[in-house]
Amino acid sequence: MNSAIRSGIAAMLGLIILWQIIVSLTGVPRFILPSPYLVGVSFIENRGLIFEHMLVTLTEVIFGLIIGIALGMITALQFEISPTAKFFLKPVLIFSQAIPVFALAPVLTLWLGYGMISKVTMAVLIIYFPVTSAFHDGLTRTPQGLLDLSKVMQAKPLRLLFLIKLPAAVPNLLSGIRLAAVYAPIGAVIGEWVGSSQGLGYLMLLANGRVKTDLMFAALFTLGFMSMSLYGLITIWIKLAFKRFDTP
Amino acid sequence: MSKSPEILVKGHAHLGGKKLFEHLELRVKAGEWTALLGPSGSGKSTLLRLIAGLATAVEFDGQIQTDDAQSLMGRIGYMAQQDLLLEWAKISDNIILGSRLRGAANPSEKCDKIIRAVGLSDKADKLPSELSGGQRQRVALARTLLEDKPVILLDEPFSALDARTRADMQDLAASQLAGRTVLLVTHDPGEAVRLCQNIYLLQNEKLVKAQPLEPPFPKKLDDSKALALQAKLLIQIRAGA
After folding, report:
1. Which residues in chain A touch residue B127, judged by CB atoms under 8 angstroms apart?
2. SS3 of B185, please?
3. What was the ipTM of the complex prediction?
């Protein structure tokens, strides 16, 4: 077994044991901090409900990832093709990052409604910048030797972009995609907190309001597990599909 | 391939107020190998980059002319110290890179012939990471050969190779690039003596022409005249340091 997975499982088990000891020693009320055992029981009892809401969040995250990565890639390529686009759009892009996504969530819900679109949009907004930035960084850092060779070979600009600059930027793009896999669930859950009737974020708020703290924790851990699995799957996919590139 | 021109470089170059070379006159003879020999930092690679039309950090005040009065643009093949292979592309795709970058027709027949000439027929479908350093530099040579340009600029292309592979590559390059105008930038007097009919030494801001050997080239590794000239050049380089 991979050493990272082993150390992850060991750390998780250690934390659960520590948590159980704290709860047993302090006698903290279960509506403040339920024991891991109670959280486990709640998870099993509500597994259908949790799974149903997880599917909603997962769908939002996957759509958010696909659209966010595509938009980020298109923007980065556009910056590289057109200096004018870069001149006008880059400051806007950086300024957009100065506004916390949390602050935008209520407006997005107002404009796009309580359904899935506002959550997918939140996820897109949160991952668009890291993907654009990582990919564009890669596109501007093509090794000088390759650029020299292409100049001597009288390369056409677009062919240079697609045959050399883009493939050379793949490792940077993949770093951006891995970051996006971590950020996208955050966007989706923020969207669910602001206004929704489905998803793990909604379930957590609902459980919290009804003082079902054990269910809230069960939903929270499901979210964590889902995000980690997504990250793991994307990492494995990158390693397998992009072997010939110097992958991160 | 069109006729190989002679190249004449005349002028001065400064780097941030400091002289790099002055009153320089470098004549790269048509259809012959010319070595530009010098220690690191002497400006020999800069000179090659100026001829290639590549960006340099220096201010160059002078002219680069050809005896046929035509521009060098599009008439140059270039090999650097690094092989500059695309790690993600197959060997055959690396070799035809020039025509792919220009959007020209795929020269597959010619490519097969050149792959055979450099002894890599069985490697065409491999990735660069599966090849040794010497094999990779052969791919770079094949890529340069496929470009079929009358002027070839070589910027220490064999300096990262081990001694045996370097000698092999020198022989291969000498046979494959015969008849072209070749400028070889190197810090190795032995390499310059083995391969080049004309040898220039760039040192202490000055360019000095050394007395070359008579053809044929490449010289045998145990050629006594070549070994003597190599020693003489090395002594000259050390005396100037």
Report:
1. 244
2. strand
3. 0.92
Number of C-beta neighbours around residue A144 at 10 A: 10
Residue given tokens 């971590």 in the structure block: A182
pLDDT tens for B9-65 read 999 999 888 888 888 899 999 999 999 998 888 889 999 999 999 999 999 999 999
> What distance in Å separates the CA atoms of residue B55 and residue B60, rounded to the nearest whole number?
11
Q: How far apart are CA A84 and CA A80, in angstroms?
A: 10
Backbone angles phi, psi at A23, to 5 degrees: -60, -45
Which residue in A147, A152, A159, A170 has the most chain B C-beta atoms within 10 A of its own C-beta, making it the best mutation to test that interface? A152
Per-residue pLDDT, averaged over A190-218, amounts to: 93
DSSP A162-206: IIIIHHHHHHHHHHHHHHHHHHHHHHHHHHHHHS-SSSHHHHHHH
Task: Work out the burial of residue B225: count CB atoms within 10 Å of its CB; fewer than 13 is exposed, 13-18 middle, 19 or more buried.
Answer: exposed
Q: Which residues on chain A are in Cβ contact (under 8 Å) with B86?
A: 146, 163-164, 167
Torsion of CA A65, A70, A74, A77, to 10 degrees: 80
Which of A143, A151, A160 is closest, CB to CB, to B54? A151
Could you count the other beta carbons within 10 Å of the beta carbon of residue A226? 17
Q: Got the DSSP string for A28-83?
A: --TTTS--HHHHHHHHHHTHHHHHHHHHHHHHHHHHHHHHHHHHHHHHHHHHHH-H
Pick from A151, A153, A172, A245 the residue to mutate for testing the B interface (most B CBs within 10 Å): A153
- Give me B216's structure tokens: 């044929």
Global pTM reads 0.87
Q: Would an 8 Å CB–CB cutoff place A152 in contact with chain B?
A: yes
Rounded distance between C-alpha atoms, residue A162 and residue A170, angstroms: 11
User: And the tokens for B28?
Assistant: 């790269």
**pLDDT score, position A245:** 82
CB contact under 8 Å between B78 and A149, yes or no, is: yes
Question: Between chains, do A148 and B77 touch, taking CB under 8 Å as contact?
Answer: no
Neighbours of B2 (CB within 10 A): 11
Which of B78, B85, B101 should be substituted to probe chain A, the one whose Cβ sees the most A Cβ atoms within 10 Å? B101
CA distances from B90 to A150, A168, A239, B222 (A): 17, 15, 19, 38
For A7-27, what is each residue's pLDDT tens digit?
988 999 999 999 999 999 998
In angstroms, the CA A79 to CA A71 distance is 12
Of residues A124, A131, A126, the one with CA closest to residue A60: A124
CB contact under 8 A, B103 and A159: yes
Q: Are B32 and B14 in contact (CB under 8 A)?
A: no
Residue listed under structure tokens 């046979």: B175
Contact call for residues B105 and B140 (beta carbons, < 8 A): no
